[in-house]
Amino acid sequence: MAGNARRRVVANISLSLDGRIKGLGGDYDMGWIVPHAVTDAARDNMVRVITPGTTALMGRKNYEGFRSYWPAVADDPDADPRDRAFASWAGSVEKVVFSRTLAGVPQDPPGAGDQPWGDARVTDVDPATEVAALRARPGGDIIVLSSASVIQALLEAGEVDVLSITLCPVVVGGGETLLRDGLPSSQWRLAESTATESGAICLRYELTR
Questions:
Q1: For residue 152, what pLDDT is reported?
Q2: Is the pLDDT of residue 1 over 70?
Q3: Where are the domains of the chain?
């Protein structure tokens, strides 16, 4: 990418103290995250994370969940301004959805709970291959939006530059973890640490290459 800085991959996710991304109840056992995601400090941190970003990466489940909620927030006068900022950003940036089951993203006019969501495309290639192609093009940060499977694949390939973690003061006691055995060894530098009103900590780690 001659004449351009290397695009950074920023993995954004919330974790429990015991490293869980979800509880024993499965994919939707994440209610323990919510009180820590809606604090002023956490919202401010999210705006800082996304502002340099021009591409968002997510898995199918996160895409479907985000798409069912965030489009309406962008123009909701009662929503927190930072939530509106995130919703507007997410609706406007390039979105890459990793899925082997989705044939494409919905393009029809919105129905109840089914709103269009800007520039999105589905791919079935592995995340590291997609990131290599994205890095070869000009652009800002590439933000992975809370999709653990995408983050795990990119960590395995050594393709994450920044880990943005909201560490929640909760011991979940079971469920899927983010950092699995077998990941390549790596060193990270703490670039930022912000305590939230709920007792969570927003951590920003940058890879030491």
A1: 96
A2: no
A3: 9-208
Sheet of 201-208, strands arranged across: 120-123, 94-98, 53-59, 141-145, 9-16, 162-168, 201-208, 187-195
The model's pLDDT over 171-184, given as tens digits with 9 standing for 90+, comes to 999 999 999 899 99
- Cα 46–Cα 57–Cα 120 angle in degrees, nearest 5: 110
Longest CA–CA span in the chain (Å) reads 48
122 with 104: CB under 8 angstroms?
A: yes
Instruction: Read off the pLDDT of residues 92-127 as tens digits, 9 standing for 90 and up.
Output: 999 999 998 876 665 443 443 455 577 899 999 999
Q: Which of 180, 188, 164 is nearest to 9 (CA)?
A: 164
The CATH class of 9-208 is: alpha beta
8 Å CB contact between 141 and 56:
no
Residue 192 CB neighbour total at 10 angstroms: 13
